[in-house]
Fold this protein.
Amino acid sequence: MPVWWDGHSKDLATVSPKFQVVIPKRVREPFGLSPGQTLQVIALPGRIALVPTQSPVALRGFLQGKNTFQREGDRL
C-alpha cells in the first residue's frame, strides 16, 4: 500500500456539476500526478478506480533481466 495509507483515513472528493473531481493533495503527491495527466477510469463492482497512464517511453526498461525475445528472421 502507498506510504500515505494508514488504513483509517478517508480523503473525500466532491463531484462538481460538470462531473469534475479534485484529487486530494495527500493522494496525488505520492503518485506524482500533474495537471493535464491522463488517468484510466475503471468501473469495478461498487467502486471506481483511477489509474495513472504512462507513455510507452516512460515504460521502457521497467522489466528487469536479459531480453530473450526472438524476432522472426524476416523482421530484423
About this structure: The chain is about 15% helix and 15% strand. The chain has one domain: 1-76. The mean pLDDT is 80.
